[in-house]
Amino acid sequence: MIRWRSGIVTALRREWPGAAEIMVTVDGDEVRALAYPFLTGRPQVGDRVLLNTNALDAGLGTGGYALVVALPDRLPPDPDSAASGHIVKNRYTPLQAMVASVDEQGSAYHDVLRAADSVAGMPVVVADLHSALPAVLAGLFSASRTKRAGSPRVAYLMQDGGALPVWFSRTVAGLRAAGWLAATVTTGQSFGGDLEAVTVHTGLLAARHVIGADVAIVSQGPGNLGTGTRWGFSGVAAGEAVNAAAALGGRPVASLRVSGADARERHQGISHHSLTAYGRVALARADVVVPVLPEPLGSRIAAQAAALAARHRVVTVPVDGLAEALRGCPVPLSTMGRGLDADLEYFLAAAAAGRHAASLLADG
C-alpha cells in the first residue's frame, strides 16, 4: 500500500507557510519531495529522508510529490504539550497529530462554542473543488481588483475530502498573504488551519463567533477524488456542507461546478458532481447560483439547473465584469490542469456564487 524509499536531500527549493519543497536523490534519480516541517522537522541538504512515493509513482495530477515521512537521523524536538491540544487528527495512522481544537474543553473559546447554536444568517458559499476558492473570493470582492477596507471578512473552511494538511495549498497561502482570507479553519480530519475544528458545524460556528467572519467558504482541500460513478466522489460532502450551514441558521449558497472545456461528458455543462451533491445529498434549501453564460452553454446549464429547482432556489446571476475580477486574483487560477482562459466558464460560475453572497450581505 505504501512505496517506501530512502534518499538524501540535495537541494532546498521554494517554501510557503507549513510546507517545504526539496530535491532528493533516490536510487540515483533526483525527485521532487514535499515536507511539512510541523510534522517532520525541517529538512536540510545532506539529511537522509524517509519518503512515501505513492503519488509520484502513480503520476497523480495533484502534487506529483514524494512525501517526507521522517528525518530518521535528526528527529525534531517534542512539541510543547501545553500548546499541542488534545484532539487527534489523521487518527490511528503513523502520522497522527495532536492539535488544539477551537471547540475542545481546554480552548479559550470552549464556553463561546458550547453555547453557540447559530451563525445568524451568515452566507456560506459551498463549492465542490478547492480551485473554486479564489474565484468565489474574486466575485465577492468584484467591486475592486483587491480587497478593500470595509470589504467582507471571509473565513475558509477546509473539509477533509482532499488534502488533509491545509499547508499543501499554495492557493490558501497566497490568499492569506494578500489579505483575501481572514482565517482558515480545518475541519474533520484536515488540519493545519488558523483554527482546528472537530466538524464543519463547529467550524462554521468558530468562523462566525471566533473569527468574526461575514462570509464563510466551504470546500475540500486540493486533490478531488472521483471514480466516474454517481456516488463515488469526495465532492458529495458539498451537499453535507449545505445541510450544516442551514442547520445553524446560515444562508447556504451553492456554487456549481460548470465547464465547457472538460472532455468528459459527465462534467460538461453542470457536472454530475454538483447535480448529485445538491440534488440528492443536500436536504436543506440553498441558493443555487446559475451564471448567465453565452450560448449554447448557457441554455444547457439553465436546463440542467431546472432539475434542482424543486429543492432549492435557483438564482440567475450575470457575469459582466467578473472575467476582469478573476484576472485580478492574487493567486494563479487552475482547475484540472486548465487555467482561466482554458476553462473560463468554470471560474465565472464560482465568481458568480461569490457575487451572490455579496448581494446577500447588502440585503442584510
**What is the CATH C level class of the largest domain, in words?**
Alpha Beta
Helix content: 25-40%
User: How would you write the strand order of the largest sheet?
Assistant: 11-10-9-12-8-13-16-17
- Residue windows where pLDDT falls under 50 for at least 5 positions: none
**Cα-to-Cα separation, first versus last residue:** 52 Å
Radius of gyration: 21 Å
Query: Taking all residues together, what is the mean pLDDT?
Result: 93
**What share of residues are in beta strands?**
25-35%
The CATH topology of the largest domain turns out to be Rossmann fold
Total tally of structural domains: 2
Named at the architecture level, the CATH assignment of the largest domain is 3-Layer(aba) Sandwich
- Indicate the overall shape: globular
Structural class by SSE content: alpha/beta
Q: Report the total helices.
A: 12
Give the total of beta strands: 19
Q: Main β-sheet, in a few words? A: 8 strands, parallel
